[in-house]
Design goal:
The chain is mainly beta. It contains eight helices and 41 strands.
C-alpha cells in the first residue's frame, strides 16, 4: 500500500494541533481476561523489513470462544493532530480459547515474506515506530484522542499504545517497535492495563486462527512472464467493493488491452479486459503501477500482467485506487482495437451521491452503481469512459485540471457553474478532467465554457477532488465569454462596505498582483467607502524574523488603487503578536480596514493592541467601542493560532456604524466529500463555531447597549450559509446573512472542486434597515485570478427611516 503526501493544503491556513504527550496514566475500565491485542506490527513492507505488510494479532485468554462479529480493530497515529481520525478494520468470525486471530493491514513495497492467510483484512498503513491500536465492540470510529478520554469509552475492549503514543494504557506505551520489531504480549497473555509492562519488543511472529505462521498464505515470489492467461481476470482483481479481495496477493498472467499510458508523475498504464463479466459492480479496467520506470507498452497492446495487487490510498482519508504493482508484462500483440467507452451522462449517473457508513469507512460496502454516483464511478475505476458537450463548473487550474458536469441541469448558477446548496445535496455530475498527453493539455477554460464534442479516456481517482477522467481525447473549447462583473457606484447617501480576501498579500509580491487586486477595488467594486481585507501579511511575508507591521504592504496596495483610478484610502489594523495568528508561517496574517477619509470618518480610540479585548460602552448618545480599532476576545481559546476579528467604529453622515472584519479558521483537516469515510467528519467546524459564538456575543453586547446600533459583520468565514458556523453567528437573530437574500442561483462567492459555494459573507444587524447587496464575480470562476475569492459589497442607507427594500446588482 502506498500513501501519498498532498501536494498542497486544500484550503489556506490549516493548522495541525499536536496533543500533549505528557498525559496522566489513564485508568481503563478493567483489564481484559478474554480477548486481547497480542501483537502489533506497523513496519510491514518498510525498508529493511522481512514481512510485506502490517498486522494486528488478537488472542483469546479466556476459556470460551470469543465472538468478534461486529467488532473492529482501530488505529490512531501516535501523536494525533486535530484532523486525525481513527481508521477502522471490521472483524468477522470468532477466536477459540488460546488461539490467535490475524488482521492483515497495509502492504508496503519492501519485505520478502508474506503473512499467513489473514482472518480479516484491513487497509490501514500503520506507522512502524509509534501508534495506538484498539479492539472495539462496534465499527463506528472512536473519537477519543487522549488516554483519559479513551479510558472513558466503554466500547474499547483492549488498547495498545506503542512507541511514543499519546493514547496508551498505564504509565507509558510499549517500546521498541520498528521496521524489524513488533510489540508483543507475553505468552501468558496477561493484561494489567499497562502497555509498557505487558508488551515488549521482539521479531514479528504473526499467527492466524489456523495456527499458520508467516509465509503460509500468499506467495510473493517471481510470477515470471507467462504466455497464457492465468485464472485471474481484471474484474476478479477489482471485486464488488472498493477494496480488492486479492489485496496484497500475487497474480499471474492477468489479460487485458492497454488503453492509456501515464509517462510522468505516478507512472504506469491502464489495461482493460475485452471479455467483461456480467456484474455491473466489478470494474473491467485496472492501473498497472510501474513506479520510477517508464511504461514499456503502447496503447493497443494486448498484454499479460503479473505482479502484486495493492490498494493505493492517495491520503489517509481518501478512497483507494486498486493497482497491480511490481509488474512483469508480456506483450502478446499490438495495434488492437480498444473496448468501447462507457458513456457518462445525466441518464447514467444516479442522483444520490454516496452510501452512508455512519461516519465509518465505506471500503467494505458492496457497490451499488445504479443507486449512488460514487459507486458508479468506482465500478468504472480504470475503465474507458466518454463524456460529451460538458459545461465547465470549475476553471482550469495551475495543475492543468478542469471541472465539468455531465448533469447540466443539476443546480446551475446564473453564470454557468453548479451550486453547492447543502451537505446532503451533492452534485453527482461533477468530474475532473486532466490530459495524459503533455503536448495537448486541457484548454484554459472559465466557468460556463463548454468542452464540445467527445472527451474520452480512463476513469481514475486522486485526493484532489476524487474521480477524474484521464483524457486521451479532449473536446474542443467553446468560449462562453464570461465577463468580470462591475458593481454600481454607491449614491451619495449610501455607505458602501466591502469584504475582499486578497490571498496572502505582502510587500514582496509582484506588482502585477497589487495592480490586479487594486483594479478589483477601484473599478469592479466601484471604490467602496470601507473595504475589510482578509489575508494581509506582514511586510516581508513568509520570512520569520519578528516583523509584524504591514505598512509597506498597505502603502503599495493603496498606491495601486490610486493608480487604478480609486481614492486615496487610509487604513487601520491591529498588528498580531509574532507567530500567534496562524496562516502561512512567518506571514503574521491579519484583518485590515481601508476607508476613504473623504467619505467616512474612522473614530480612533487608543489602547487597542494584540491582547486587549474591545468592549461595548453604553453612553447617553448610544453605544461606542472601548478601543477602535480593537480585537474581539483575543485571549479566548477560540482564536488560538487563528486571526482575530477586527472591530472598528466609523461615522458616516452623522451616524455611527460598527464594522467587524473576520477570517475564521480554515477547513483544512476536514474529510473530503468523496472520501472513504461517510458521512465525512468536518473536524475544523468545531473551532469556527467557537469563533462564531465569540463574535455573536460581541454583537449582542453592542445591541444590548443600543438595540438600533448599525453593525456590519463581514469577511471570510470559511463556511457555508447553511453551516452550524453561520447558525452560531446569527443566533438570537442579531445578524442577517445577506447571501440568503439573493436568488438561489447567485448565492456563491467561491468555487472549489467544481462546486460554486459561499465562504465569504456580509451580515447586518436589525438597525441596518435599508441595504443593497452584491457579490461581484471577478475571480473564483476564472482561470486567471488574483485571488480565489470573489469580493462582496453592501450599500447602506444609514438614515433610512424604516425597513426598506433590498436587492443586488
Amino acid at each position: 500500500m502506498r500513501i501519498s503526501t498532498p501536494r498542497s493544503v486544500l484550503l489556506a491556513g490549516a493548522v495541525a494541533v499536536t496533543l500533549s504527550a505528557t498525559a496522566l496514566p489513564a485508568a481503563f475500565a478493567a483489564p481484559s481476561s478474554t480477548a486481547v491485542i497480542s501483537e502489533v506490527y506497523g513496519g510491514g513492507g518498510n525498508s529493511g523489513a522481512t514481512l510485506t505488510r502490517d498486522f494486528i494479532e488478537l488472542a483469546n485468554a479466556g476459556s470460551a470462544a470469543y465472538d468478534l462479529s461486529g467488532f473492529s480493530v482501530q488505529y490512531l497515529p501516535g501523536a494525533p493532530s486535530a484532523g486525525s481520525q481513527w481508521q477502522v478494520s471490521a472483524l468477522t468470525g470468532s477466536v477459540a480459547p488460546g488461539d490467535r486471530y490475524l488482521v492483515a493491514e497495509a502492504a508496503g513495497t519492501g519485505g520478502t515474506v508474506a503473512l499467513p492467510a489473514p482472518d480479516a483484512t484491513g487497509t490501514v498503513a500503520m506507522a512502524a515506530a509509534s501508534g495506538t491500536v484498539a479492539l472495539v465492540s462496534g465499527t463506528t470510529p472512536l473519537t477519543c484522542k487522549t488516554a483519559a478520554d479513551c479510558a472513558a469509552d466503554t466500547r474499547i475492549v483492549d488498547l495498545v499504545g506503542y512507541g511514543t503514543a499519546v493514547v496508551r494504557e498505564g504509565g507509558g506505551p510499549a517500546t521498541g517497535a520498528s521496521a524489524t520489531a513488533s510489540v508483543a504480549r507475553a505468552a501468558s497473555l496477561a493484561d494489567t492495563d499497562d502497555n509498557a509492562a505487558d508488551l515488549s519488543s521482539a521479531a514479528p511472529t504473526p499467527v492466524n486462527a489456523a495456527g499458520e505462521t508467516s509465509g503460509g498464505g500468499e506467495d510473493p515470489g517471481d510470477p515470471g512472464n507467462p504466455t497464457e492467461p492465468g485464472t485471474v481476470r481484471v474484474h476478479d482483481v477489482q471485486g464488488t467493493t472498493r477494496v480488492s479481495p486479492l489485496d496484497g496477493r500475487a497474480v499471474t498472467g492477468v489479460p487485458g488491452v492497454v488503453t492509456a499510458v501515464r509517462a510522468s508523475g505516478s507512472r504506469g498504464f491502464w489495461i482493460q479486459d475485452t471479455a467483461p463479466d456480467a456484474d455491473p459492480r466489478t470494474a473491467e479496467g485496472v492501473f498497472v503501477y510501474t513506479g520510477s520506470a517508464a511504461p514499456a507498452v503502447s496503447v493497443g497492446d494486448s498484454v499479460l500482467v503479473s505482479g502484486t495487487v495493492d490498494e493505493y490510498y492517495p491520503s489517509t482519508t481518501t478512497q483507494s485506487v486498486t493497482e497491480i504493482t511490481s509488474p512483469r508484462v508480456t506483450v502478446l500483440s499490438s495495434g488492437n482495437a480498444l473496448p468501447a467507452p462507457v458513456v457518462l451522462n445525466a441518464k447514467a449517473v444516479p442522483s444520490r451521491y454516496v452510501p452512508s457508513a455512519g461516519g465509518g469507512s465505506i471500503d467494505a460496502l458492496p457497490l451499488e452503481p445504479s443507486k449512488y454516483a460514487l459507486d458508479l464511478y468506482e465500478s468504472l475505476e480504470g475503465t474507458r469512459v466518454r463524456i460529451a458537450d460538458t459545461r465547465v463548473t470549475g476553471a482550469t487550474t495551475a495543475y492543468g485540471e478542469v471541472w465539468v458536469t455531465v448533469e447540466p441541469k443539476q443546480n446551475p448558477t446564473r453564470r454557468g457553474g453548479t451550486l453547492y446548496s447543502s451537505y446532503t445535496g451533492q452534485n453527482t455530475g461533477r468530474i475532473k478532467v486532466m490530459s495524459l498527453d503533455a503536448d495537448k493539455p486541457v484548454p484554459t477554460a472559465n466557468v460556463g465554457d463548454v468542452l464540445s464534442g467527445a472527451t474520452s479516456g480512463v476513469l481514475d481517482y486522486d485526493s484532489y477532488g476524487g474521480y477524474n477522467l484521464q483524457a486521451t481525447q479532449l473536446g474542443t473549447l467553446t468560449d462562453h465569454h464570461l465577463r468580470r462583473e462591475v458593481t454600481r457606484r454607491q449614491k451619495g447617501k449610501e455607505l458602501a462596505v466591502a469584504t475582499y480576501n486578497v490571498e496572502n498579500l505582502d510587500a514582496l509580491d509582484e506588482q502585477a498582483k497589487f495592480d490586479t487586486l487594486a483594479e478589483g477595488v477601484a473599478v469592479n467594486l466601484s471604490s467602496p467607502d470601507i473595504v475589510s481585507l482578509e489575508e494581509i501579511q506582514d511586510d516581508n511575508g513568509a520570512v520569520s524574523d519578528g516583523t509584524v507591521g504591514s505598512e509597506a504592504t498597505l502603502k503599495r496596495f493603496t498606491d495601486a488603487i490610486v493608480a487604478a483610478g480609486g481614492p486615496r484610502y487610509s487604513w487601520r489594523y491591529v498588528a498580531p503578536q509574532d507567530g500567534k495568528d496562524g496562516g502561512e508561517p512567518g506571514g503574521n496574517i491579519r484583518n485590515v480596514f481601508l476607508f476613504n477619509p473623504k467619505r467616512v470618518d474612522f473614530v480612533d480610540r487608543p489602547g487597542g493592541d494584540a491582547t486587549t479585548p474591545v468592549a461595548a460602552v453604553r453612553t447617553k448618545k448610544g453605544v461606542t467601542l472601548s478601543v477602535s480599532p480593537g480585537r474581539i476576545a483575543p485571549a479566548s481559546a477560540a482564536w488560538d493560532d487563528s486571526r482575530k476579528p477586527l472591530a472598528g467604529e466609523f461615522r458616516f453622515r452623522g451616524e455611527s456604524v460598527f464594522v467587524v472584519g473576520n477570517h475564521f479558521a480554515s477547513k483544512g483537516g476536514d474529510q473530503p466529500l468523496h472520501g472513504r469515510y461517510q458521512e465525512p467528519v468536518r473536524s475544523s467546524e468545531t473551532k469556527r463555531v467557537q469563533q462564531a459564538k465569540e463574535v455573536n456575543t460581541f454583537v449582542k453586547s453592542l445591541l444590548a447597549a443600543d438595540k438600533s446600533a448599525r453593525v456590519v459583520v463581514l469577511g471570510d468565514l470559511n463556511d457555508f450559509a447553511f453551516s452550524p458556523t453561520v447558525g452560531a453567528l446569527t443566533a438570537g437573530k442579531v445578524l442577517k446573512p445577506l447571501i440568503t437574500t439573493l436568488p438561489k442561483n447567485e448565492q456563491y462567492s467561491y468555487v472549489y472542486e467544481g462546486n460554486s459555494q459561499t465562504l465569504d459573507h456580509i451580515l447586518t444587524s436589525p438597525g441596518v434597515r435599508r441595504f443593497d447587496y452584491d457579490v461581484v464575480h471577478i475571480n473564483a470562476e476564472f482561470a486567471d485570478q488574483a485571488s480565489d475569492h470573489d469580493p462582496q459589497i453592501v450599500r447602506l442607507d444609514v438614515n433610512a427611516p424604516d425597513r426598506g427594500h433590498h436587492g443586488h446588482h
